[in-house]
């Protein structure tokens, strides 16, 4: 018999120490894509958490508070007791149930909807708050909206350990995993820089404690903030929301909070991260034409090579050379600069340059389609520079006016123009994947546009416009993917990743093959993989340390870039390395296991494993840095079947060995890299 729904001892408090009580509930299996594996009983725990807050029916109690705000100077914990409450439940697709709490203030007509989703196949719950003024006059001030305001109680023995990750800032330590113990009275505050959601900070956390823990994520492609604050006893309070909210709502006006997600787990936190990866693929990652994401190879001429100005002629030259050399990308990538501009940074005139592309980009899309490739094209509609079409014709749409700046996606007229213009170009030019960049920080513009009684409203409307823009593009082009680039990987919160994929996890790439970028890109794969299963990056050709450089950039979306006009390209080696990526790429969408601690140190090894238990195969990547004196390391693998026999192939050698799963996990696998620096790539498969 399962325990009854948990009743906290104080509002918003949840005794996580009860996680183990449901261990006897057994296993749940599912045929949901990306989740065809047994899930433990913490799935029941997540349902109990949600039921205690959204439960409907004759036995329903007052919902337990799990968010907070102030209205007209009064705290929500007091106000909600006096507001009318309605509950609703409906079944969604994909093993999900939606629960809605609707509160109405009888005095002012403010309506709060809290929409939660329960997952039957994962130990995961989520919710979003929506506030709407249904009255005939402006509301009092609504302030300090915390989409989550919850206390977690640790077990009697042990402490809270917070695992989190740096955001992207185009540095070697982007996505560095960090860990710290939150002892009595400790506090950690997080917020991104400049209004882009994963700029410097990363809105994903793992709160670990003895016996289990909870993963927390905030989905908000703007300026969020989060605070993890430990009291002097056994409680950790977690609060998060849009960083600044202090505004009145006008009649009929509606705003929303960030999305909040909790995933409960027992035992191993690495196992919990793999359940998260599976949940991301099953319920969040885009599925163009209803199909799951698959690895993709891209090639970009870049337009950054000496003497190269991208044109129809140059693009076809690059396509022809790659075709002749036997390298077949899945996508041809046209990056910035195809519009009229002195240099790529001059954006705001969204039309094809007629001088360099007299027959339009359609000439390129037709050319690559005939060669069984699809076409990626770069856009940046959120930024306009002086003396471009947008700044000359509609300065009222731009924060900064005719001088240029951020284009206001919260302005309905600007939104309509951008949606229709981008849609027109995609349709007329035959574009298959829409790549959106964002190379300006919007926060200062948002806040400068707010009045004293409307602080945070510009950002809220902008964020809603941004998400609605992509939703509309996806509605008009259901088979099209979107790339979420924003100066690299600086806007990859969960709401963004439900609509797009990050094909460029960071602008920290090996430009011109400079080997200084190699360790950082190894570290980025290591740090990003526990949270985001599908991402990409690009690597430039270099005859120096080519094997190590290429392998340091291997991702599910693998971008290669070379100036095909040069005469020193080792095409045979290029083909070999691309072939190796194709052999192992599917494994990168499996479970991720770190095999060494994270480090960028020149005297260290760095290694990890990707495993697909359903397919019975996996891969190991290992890197020996230049000052490391050990030619070998022992790696104990994870996730294998102990009784099974696996063929293990070092892709740098011809030999194949057979080893039992138990031996690979208990005794480990010897990884040998004779040269420093150097790399190893191993593929294994279970024998049938």
Describe this structure in words.
The protein is α+β, with helices and mostly antiparallel strands and 688 residues long. The chain folds into three domains: 13-153 and 223-283, no CATH class; 288-586, TIM Barrel (Alpha-Beta Barrel), CATH 3.20.20; 591-686, Immunoglobulin-like, CATH 2.60.40. Helices cover 21% and strands 30% of the residues. The protein is built from 14 helices and 38 strands. Strands 4, 5, 6, 7, 10, 11, 13, 14, 18 and 19 form a ten-stranded antiparallel beta sheet that branches. A seven-stranded parallel beta sheet has the order 28-26-22-21-20-30-29. Strands 31-32-33-38-35-36 form a six-stranded antiparallel beta sheet. Strand 6 and strand 7 (124-133) form a beta hairpin. Helix 7 packs parallel to helix 9 (457-476) and helix 11 runs parallel beside helix 12. The radius of gyration is 26 Å and the shape is globular. The two termini are 39 Å apart. Mean pLDDT is 91; it is low at 1-38.
What percent of residues are in strands? 25-35%
Largest sheet geometry: 10 strands, antiparallel
From the spread of the alpha carbons, the general shape counts as globular
| Number of discrete domains | 3
The first-level CATH class of the largest domain is given as Alpha Beta
Number of strands: 38
Helical element count? 14
Nearest-integer average pLDDT: 91
CATH architectural arrangement of the largest domain: Alpha-Beta Barrel
Would you give the CATH topology of the largest domain? TIM Barrel
- Structural class label: alpha+beta
Task: List low-confidence stretches.
Answer: 1-38
What is the rounded Rg?
26 Å
Fraction of residues in helices? Answer: 10-25%
How far is the N terminus from the C terminus? 39 Å
The CATH superfamily of the largest domain appears as: Aldolase class I
